Amino acid sequence: MGQTFAEKVLAQKTGLERTVAGQIVTVKPDRLLTHDNTSAIAATFYKIGVKRMADPTLSVIVLDHVVPAANETYAISHQATRAFVAEQGITAFYDVGEGICHQVFPEKGHVWPGAVIVGSDSHTPTAGAFGAFAAGIGRTEAAAVMATGEIWLRVPESIRVIVHGTLPPRVSAKDVILYLIGQLRADGADYCSVEFAGETITAMSVSERMTLTNMSAEMGAKNAVVEPDEKTLAWLAGRVSQPFTPVFADADAVYARVITLDAGALTPQIARPHTVDNVAPVTDVVGTRIDQVVLGTCTNGRLEDLRAAAELLRGKHIAPGVRLLVLPASREVLQAALAEGVIADLIAAGATLLNPGCGPCLGAHQGCMAPGEATLSTSNRNFKGRMGSKDAAIYLGSPATAAASALMGVITDPREL
Amino acid sequence: MRPTQITGRLWVLRDATGRLYTDIDTDMIFHNRYLHITEVTQMGQYALDNLKGWEDFARRARPGDLIMAGSNFGAGSSRQQAVDCFHALGIAALIAESFGAIYKRNAINSGLPLVTFPGLAEVASRFESGDLVTVDFCTGALIRNGAEHFQAQPFSKVQLDIYQAGNLFEYGKVVTG
User: Fold this and answer.
1) Chain B residues with beta carbon closer than 8 angstroms to that of A152
2) Cα–Cα distance between B169 and A114 in angstroms, integer?
3) Of A44, A48, A162, A404, which has the fewest CB atoms closer than 10 Å, so is most exposed?
4) Which of A152, A185, A391 to mutate to test the interface with B (most CBs of B within 10 A)?
5) B159 touches chain A (CB under 8 A)
6) Where are the domains of chain B?
7) Residue B177 has pLDDT above 50, yes or no
8) Cβ distance of B78 and A47 shorter than 8 Å
């Protein structure tokens, strides 16, 4: 009997010949990702009574959630993180302005095929786009990983998602994952490892694959993975210096569920308030008035996403009364978008440019909503009150849908423009 | 050793139509506007204050109480406060059809008992807030008002070991000596 990706990679990591779903294993992860919550994790770390991290090279820290600090409380938290970094001799530290942790993490070479990554953020599975096992963990255990270098994991059951066919114009990876979440619901992949396969996935860029693995968290996935190929290796070239061996699921692996999707039949999708699985075709909500559009985040803040929006906005101007906030996922993305003229096009169209970071996505600063307002965002969560007022609405959609809607001032099907 | 069988007063989290709430996310449990709070004792007052109909839960809950909810309790972010707020209130256990993956890890590692109850949706109508419920973590046996018997999942070995040690750190001391 063959092994799934998760069973195989966790077996290799523990020196076992094989593991099976449900088994509890203790592993030494290759990297631990933390962000602004490092200061709280460090406080917990000190409480354990340990002075030094088991292995400072394990730790990758990116300040991204509320950057630059919105007030004194956040500034003190960032300061505590910088002090912890200096004290422990952590070299992989990325301060304000570098970008969102899930984007900076692969850019700086901290993920490779076959790696085991844990991170104190629920969107850590993003790194699975590079063929890694990447799972979100809590603060307490992040502190424990710092102290011991180890973590217990339950080997997850696996779901194989096979996508066939060619995506129609202006239908993207975001629409694929929104549709899938709508079908599987918010708990459809709870504790599971999701393996994406099929020629549609193979045809996708690394950036699009990251959108899929990023949002798998919204159906409860522990990790999500795309098999590495030439595109993965080309993307990682010059970033990852250490040798690695890709891990592939066996052809006769046993899955809890196999799901097949036809990309050719897909239309632009929207998640309506207030849950991510409240998904409908965009045609069901066209004409809904919006006050704000957010283009960016770890889900859709990469160069391809900004390009998709600029293509619709170039030479035009957003509707009166709409605020378009653009925040590239990282400094690297921002520089590339500047070099291509994409940023100039977006700003000329009326966009407000924010610094790379999480920005308004978690409602702490930069674009919170007033009661009665609505935002269409390319981000991954639309929980009630997430972006300011509890009486505001968040719709989730693709960069193309976001750009089309910013132009018209109401939710718009990007295929109509 | 902490007790492996507990009895407590039950809160059944239902919406205005009487349906057991499912997919209660971490923003409903502990809203992001309170995320700057790091002191556990300060967290209890905000527990469930963004869940419609349960905004005053913190004032109604007493130490030793149990909470019951539908599937996917704790979906969403990895925030530890969504677990710690129940520690602050002295909640003895959470019972749900299923839990969000990271939420489950957070709770287990912090020593908060989570009881997974597959099939709860079918029998949820038999439970009311105020019921006295006994749960055995080792066997999964669940008894309502001393009379009606149900079967939930027993704790896994690692869950039981961490719970009995107190939390992940104490457990680590036990394991590593």
Assistant:
1) 158
2) 29
3) A162
4) A152
5) no
6) 9-131
7) no
8) no
Identify the CATH class of B9-131. alpha beta
Q: What 3 state SS string does A353-407 have?
A: ECCCCCHHHHCCCCCCECCCCEEEECCCCCECCCCECCCCEEEECCHHHHHHHHH
Token pair in block for residue A111 = 């993920």
Structure confidence by residue, pLDDT tens digits, B31-73: 988 888 888 999 999 999 999 999 999 999 999 999 999 999 9
List, in order of start, the domains of chain A with CATH numbers.
5-261 (3.30.499.10), 270-416 (3.30.499.10)
Tell me how many residue pairs between chain A and chain B have CB atoms under 8 A apart. Answer: 107
Check: pTM over 0.80? Answer yes or no: yes
Give the residue carrying structure tokens 């004792």: B41
A221: which chain B residues are within 8 Å (Cβ-Cβ)?
Answer: 101
User: Can you tell me which residue has the tokens 């669940």?
Assistant: B142
Instruction: Tell me how close the Cα of B144 comes to any Cα of chain A, in angstroms.
Output: 27
Residues B94 and B47 sit within 8 Å (Cβ to Cβ): no
Centre a 10 Å sphere on the Cβ of residue A391 and count the other Cβ atoms it contains: 12
